[in-house]
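Handoff note, outgoing to incoming analyst
You'll be picking up this chain. Sequence as last confirmed:
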Amino acid sequence: MRVMNPTVKPGWFFRNGRQYLAVSEVPRALNVPAHQISDAIALGHLRIERVSGCKAVELAEMMNYIDLQEGKK
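Most recent structure output, in case you need it:
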């Protein structure tokens, strides 16, 4: 039997009650250029963690980054 709508999408992870998104999926989820995300990681605005061998960003931290960027505008 095939599941039509999976509950977990590829690139989304859960660990210790926290939700993470793969770094490769962040630009698509935020609708921003990839270089902006890589700059944020290099400047320390977004912290990378390894989840299941994948580089990922905590969803709450990503939302804080969005708020920070909107505040600069």
